[in-house]
Amino acid sequence: MGKIKLTGKGRRWQLTGHPWVYVDDILEGQGEAGELLPVEDPNGNPMGWGLFSTSSRIAVRMVTRSPEQPNREFWLGRMRRAVEARASAGLLDPEGACRLLAGDSDGVPGMVIDRYGRTCVLQSGSQGSDRMRDFLVELLLEVLPFEPDAIVDRSDTSVRRLENLEKRVETLRGSVAGPIVVREGEVEYEVDVFGGHKTGAYLDQRLNRIHAARFAEGHKVLDAFAYDGLFALHAAKAGAESVVCLEQNKAACERLQRAAERNGVADRIEVHRTNCMNALRERAEQGERYGLIILDPPAFARNRKEVAGAERGYVELNRRGFALATEAGHVVSASCSHNVRPHEFTEFLASAARLAGRDVWLEELAGAAPDHPYLVTLPESHYLKCAFLRIG
Ligand SMILES: C[S@@+](CC[C@H](N)C(=O)[O-])C[C@H]1O[C@@H](n2cnc3c(N)ncnc32)[C@H](O)[C@@H]1O
Known about the structure:
Elements: E1 4-6, H1 8-15, E2 20-22, E3 26-29, E4 36-40, E5 46-52, E6 58-64, H2 72-88, E7 97-102, E8 111-116, E9 119-124, H3 127-131, H4 133-143, E10 150-155, E11 168-174, E12 180-184, E13 187-191, H5 206-212, E14 220-224, H6 230-237, E15 242-247, H7 250-262, E16 269-273, H8 276-285, E17 290-295, H9 307-323, E18 325-335, H10 342-356, E19 360-366, E20 385-391
Parallel strand pairs: 1-4, 9-10, 14-15, 14-17, 15-16, 17-18
Antiparallel strand pairs: 1-3, 2-6, 4-5, 5-6, 7-8, 8-9, 10-11, 12-13, 18-20, 19-20
Helix pairs in contact: 2-4, 5-6, 8-9, 9-10
Bound molecules: S-adenosylmethionine.
């Protein structure tokens, strides 16, 4: 077994509690792809254990600060801690969906496991989690309080390229016969765990969708970047007069249309397969106004260098959104770029308000649902910002 010795700078960084070791902070040491290795400071004092990557700039993802090597009991404890946190939050309702394991935030670096009903979908994003996949599935089965119908490996994210890993989609256990139907509050929707975004749905926005629906009753609603339209469906169920959905993905638009029918609100939901940026401008020019507008775009900044470009995107998007709001209407505006910090996002919203010539009050700045936990020593895990704004 190899070991990793940190530079003085690497040691100081580790003392901040951040769980990642960057390749430039390694003084000496090597290991195999995904190997669990001891980590030492420059004087050879133990600093813990981490999972090694032979190709990523994040060379080691720390697992423990203890000198003892993690064993089966240790990993079982990590999995149990994650699943029990969801169970005690009431998230294991068999008809619902939630994130069971949130990778580095839950102390199991690189591995995400979501649950749709009784189907579990895992997504591995590092050499360490790939190497441990079958072992983690075995532990999952031990700690889950129900027998899963199926376990799918949906490891096809683009971050795998940084780890020199191929994309992979396979069913590891049981079978999935067509779309899975799950429930979120009053809304039922179908999930495509093989082809949908992420592991099939954006579970992180779950509470924000339910929260946003409070502003919908009796109003015209616009759901931009709608994906499967869950913001729209909640708004319609809560008594919106009408809901316009804008989304460019064909399969998502089709699922949205079917969900509108399934939930008995198809007469009040319009689905437009279109580019949101153009559609928002055109609707403003036509003088349309909405009492609730949702702006939930994809990440505009994939790294810190892209933040300047992302700023232009967020300012312009929100300017267009604010222009479409009725007086005393609400805009729910999200950013899922972890590179855009919360204070930067609120500055972008301020610029958009100035350009739109509207008064904008930030009533609440929410984050992801708690099954996507924000580990405070890992700022990257605080990626989602969801601003609830009142417009004057
Ligand atoms: C963050 S997701 C939205 C999640 C959704 N609001 C939910 O709660 O499930 C962003 C969506 O924007 C769509 N999208 C990206 N760029 C777009 C564009 N220019 N016009 C329309 N849709 C776009 C993507 O296909 C994706 O479905």
